[in-house]
TrEMBL record:
Biased composition (Polar residues): 703-716
Bilayer-spanning residue ranges: 287-311
Domain annotation Protein kinase: ranges: 413-687
Compartments where located: Membrane
Keywords for this protein: ATP-binding, Leucine-rich repeat, Membrane, Nucleotide-binding, Receptor, Repeat, Signal, Transmembrane, Transmembrane helix
Cellular component annotations (GO), alphabetically ordered: membrane
PANTHER family with a match to the protein in the record: LEUCINE-RICH REPEAT RECEPTOR-LIKE PROTEIN KINASE PXC1, PROTEIN STRUBBELIG-RECEPTOR FAMILY 4
Record-level Gene Ontology MF annotations: ATP binding; protein kinase activity
Positions bound to ATP: K442
Protein name: Protein kinase domain-containing protein
Ranges in coiled-coil conformation: none
PROSITE patterns per UniProt: PROTEIN_KINASE_ATP, PROTEIN_KINASE_DOM
Residue stretches of biased makeup (Pro residues): 249-258
Organism in which the protein naturally occurs: Brassica carinata (Ethiopian mustard)
Length: 716
């Protein structure tokens, strides 16, 4: 019996020791790590397949949350591949400072990557998802990163990553996305890169930045690369189909270009291999002692000859100067030395001018001072001139937001908060802690490259001064981590485009008086840009999607001035013709005040007919709204058949006819015949003042109209 008690006590003691050891090894998970996973779980819509995970609290390390690996109290690995997860990544992943591997591949995750990613990752795998935007700049600071896979997503635009610090990266996969532009120049810093996969993108330019990398596998198929393939890449496992490379031998490098040496491969090890390699290199690529001696002797000879000619020239100049001084002693007038052209690059033109002066005025120019040496003159003229760009002040009424502020307010720019996507970027709904709701426009790198932060600040300063009741007001901006974001006031009813084309119920809510009100307010906004702003601003991007409606159906022109100030705006706008472009813009790509008038006329046509400016689903003769509608604008019978069916015939006939007259003036093919916006505004004001406010119907028996003779008060 005594022996049994001893055994039981010993067993209990052992269990306590093991339990203590277990709790010591794992412990409670670090609070910041737990918060980061709570936020990630919420951002992924709290998926049931993540067993043990919770939206708040919990202990990932002790409770064995699925996919989580810990070391003591810190999370070191997070592997959630192939679990059909959706949603976004949240905005707290940077709290996972001990995480070395993040694998979320083969899921349905989307949205833009968060700006804050775990800073100390060695492996990051986000392949086979639906991520959009640009590869975020925060990847640039992951100095320990060895493996990066963003393949098979929906990334687009210029690569925003700075690779200067990623010297440990061995595998990089950007394949099957929509990346554009040339490869970043900082690729040259990837001195450990072995495998590079860029296939099926829209990269362009040359491969010169890859020439010195120790690549073993390179796939660049199906891009827009041009030029020649560097000879140093031809020994790699290279797949290059679907590009436009030049055939034939590459041209020789410019004189003085240092030879490109690929970084040494790390396959071989051991001291004997290193010694033999160094000896072989000295024989093959090193310059022999005889060649060095020859070069030194040649340099000495050239230097001696240059010195001889300089001395001879100086003596000659001294003699000529003494003769000139003797000649000019008796002359009544001489030019001071400061007026003499001293720069060697214009000596020939100076001598011609001197000859002309000699023959006409008999004046000898005094030479430069003899004590000034040739070397000093050369040094002084070769000093680089640095032009500093003046700092642009942003008005004080515009707030500066941080990336973190906007990340939180938009839930990491989630798809759920996406309001729309335009020519220059996406717009997101942002709700802040104080309950205020704003709209955040994230400008694409194709519209404004990440490096042009100074230009962005200048653009903000120009947009911020625009002040009109019918122009969407800029309230803030953000320029961090190479990103450019504009923060605007939010209008709850959405865009005119949505009202007219997306919902039949909403289009019915847009009664005739409201349509005239929208047209007049928009016309006033454009009149402000054209005739009040100095210099005048050509909007270039007037369309129903850029006309926002507030709770009282007042219109607000959005993206105002953005197309005028962005450097690549014309090129981007000309890539897609939605039916708003004037004929001269389609032909020449040049915008003017009169092309804005035309675009506004197209918006009025949308208000009148409820049709899109270009609709490929209709018959060929009716696809272009302007071509179909213009011949019928002055035919009252045809006009009645053109009107938006959602109006159900409830509109004043005279108001409709006058509205059509304004449209006809605005969409004339010749720009010189289109009216200025001040005249358009005046015509619409008169229309409102003279309009019969009773709701009338077309083609209905008069006895049926009697009940609708009461004036309507929803005009203005």
């Amino acid at each position: 019996m005594m022996e049994n008690r001893v055994v039981v006590v010993a067993a209990l003691f052992a269990v306590c020791i093991v339990g203590f050891e277990f709790s010591f090894i794992h412990g409670a998970t670090d609070a910041s790590d737990t918060s980061a996973l709570n936020m990630l779980f919420t951002s992924m819509h709290s998926p049931g397949q993540l067993t043990q995970w919770t939206a708040s609290g919990g202990d990932p390390c002790v409770q064995n949350w699925r996919g989580v690996t810990c070391s003591k109290s810190r999370i070191t690995q997070l592997k959630l591949s192939g679990l059909e997860l959706s949603g976004t990544l949240g905005y707290m992943l940077d709290k996972l400072t001990s995480l070395t591997e993040l694998d979320l591949s083969s899921n349905n995750l989307g949205g833009d990557l968060p700006y804050q990613l775990p800073p100390n990752l060695q492996r990051l795998n986000l392949a086979n998802n639906q991520f959009t935007g640009a590869a975020q700049y925060s990847i640039s600071n992951m100095a320990s990163l060895k493996y990066l896979n963003l393949g098979h997503n929906q990334f687009k635009g210029q690569v925003a990553v700075d690779f200067s610090k990623l010297t440990s990266l061995t595998t990089l996969d950007f394949s099957f996305n929509s990346f554009t532009s040339s490869l970043p120049g900082t690729f040259t810093s990837l001195t450990s890169l072995k495998s590079l996969y860029l296939q099926n993108n829209q990269f362009s330019g040359t491969l010169n930045v890859l020439a010195g990398l120790p690549l073993e596998t390179l796939n660049i198929a199906n891009n827009d690369f041009t030029g020649w393939i560097p000879s140093t890449l031809k020994g790699t496992n290279l797949i290059k189909d679907g590009n436009s490379f030049n055939n034939g031998p590459a041209p020789p490098p410019p004189p003085g270009t240092p030879p490109i040496h690929r970084s040494p491969s790390h396959k071989s090890g051991g001291g004997s291999n290193r010694d033999s390699t160094s000896n072989g290199d000295s024989k093959k690529s090193g310059i022999g002692a005889g060649a060095i001696a020859g070069i030194i002797i040649s340099l000495l000879v050239v230097t001696a000859l240059v010195a001889f000619f300089l001395v001879k020239r100086r003596r000659r100049s001294k003699r000529s100067s003494s003769m000139d001084i003797e000649k000019t002693d008796n002359q009544p007038f001489t030019l001071p030395p400061s007026d003499f052209h001293e720069n060697n690059s214009i000596q020939s033109s100076s001598s011609i001018e001197t000859k002309k002066l000699d023959t006409s005025l008999s004046i000898n120019l005094r030479p430069p001072p003899a004590d000034r040496s040739f070397d000093d003159d050369e040094d002084s003229t070769r000093k680089p001139i640095v032009v500093k760009k003046s700092t642009v002040a942003v008005p004080s009424n515009v707030r500066v937001y941080s990336v973190a502020d906007l990340q939180i307010a938009t839930a990491s720019f989630s798809v759920d908060n996406l309001l729309g996507e335009g020519t220059f970027g996406r717009v997101y709904r942002a709700e802040f802690n104080n309950g205020k709701v704003l709209a955040v426009k994230k400008i694409d790198s194709s519209a404004l490259p990440h490096s042009m932060t100074d230009d962005f600040t200048e653009i903000v300063s120009k947009i911020a001064v625009l002040d009109h009741p019918n122009v969407t007001k800029l309230v803030g901006y953000c320029a961090e981590h190479g990103q450019h974001l504009l923060v605007y006031e939010f209008h709850s009813k959405g865009s005119l485009h949505d009202f007219l084309h997306l919902s039949e119920e909403e289009s019915k809510a847009l009664v005739w008086n409201s349509r005239v009100k929208v047209a007049l307010g928009t016309a006033r906004a454009i009149e402000y840009l054209h005739e009040v702003c100095s210099p005048s601003i050509v909007d270039k991007n007037i369309k129903s999607a850029n006309i926002l409606l507030d709770s009282e159906m007042n219109p607000h022109l959005s993206d105002t001035g953005l197309a005028s100030f962005l450097p690549t705006a014309n090129e981007l706008l000309n890539q897609t013709d939605e039916g708003y472009s004037a004929p001269e813009v389609s032909m020449s790509g040049q915008y003017s005040l009169k092309s804005d008038v035309y675009s506004f006329g197209v918006v009025m046509l949308e208000l009148l007919t409820g049709r899109k400016p270009f609709d490929s689903t209709r018959s060929r003769s009716e696809q272009s709204l302007v071509r179909w509608a213009t011949p019928q604008l002055h035919d009252i019978d045809a006009l009645g058949k053109m009107v938006d069916p959602a109006l159900e015939g409830l509109y004043p006939v005279k108001s409709l006819s006058r509205f059509a007259d304004v449209i006809a003036l605005c969409v004339q093919p010749e720009p010189e015949f289109r009216p200025p916006m001040s005249e358009v505004v005046q015509s619409l004001v008169v229309l409102v003042q003279r309009a019969n406010m009773s709701k009338r119907t077309v083609g209905v028996d008069p006895s049926q109209r009697s009940g609708s003779a009461e004036p309507s008060n929803d005009y203005m």
